[in-house]
């Protein structure tokens, strides 16, 4: 099993028991489509859409993927590789987001911000446009999404890290 892999282990009716490996440790995950957390889910709160949060950035690929050791919820560790960085500005502050290339050429950036822990999950992700020939991308933060760990105290997604999110330059 890969370092961050999973294995569909046991099926019982509509339930699935999954064996997962995170940070060198095994865990068991139960997937139940009839769980109250799914059947009584009321939706995700959102912010009003604003053109102010559609920003331009510049994509810079790394020569080699950079492996960054980050914490995980549940006290395990992870070493996700990042293939590039996206530089952008908001107001008078410059930021750099660690990112990975997607299948279609768009980039996925994980980021923390000042709403974390109060109005939003500890960190979120946003997908950019495909870069143009000069490396420019559009980042629409109106389309930022929560990772699955935001909906469970037992999530195994990497925790927020300065290496994976917004930081001033």
Write a compact overview of the structure shown.
The protein is an all-beta fold and 169 residues long. It folds into 2 domains: 6-39; 51-151, no CATH class. The chain is built from 1 helix and 12 strands.
The helix fraction, in percent, is under 10%
So what's the overall shape? globular
Overall number of structural domains: 2
Mean pLDDT: 81
Q: Span between N and C termini?
A: 38 Å
- What is the strand tally? 12
- Biggest sheet features: 7 strands, antiparallel
- What class, by secondary structure content? mainly beta
Side by side, the strands of the main sheet go 11-4-7-8-9-10-12
Could you tell me the radius of gyration in angstroms? 18 Å
* Continuous helix count: 1
What fraction of residues sit in β-strands?
A: 35-45%
Quaternary structure annotation = single chain
Order of helices and strands: EEEHEEEEEEEEE
Q: Low-confidence segments, ≥5 residues, pLDDT <50?
A: 161-169
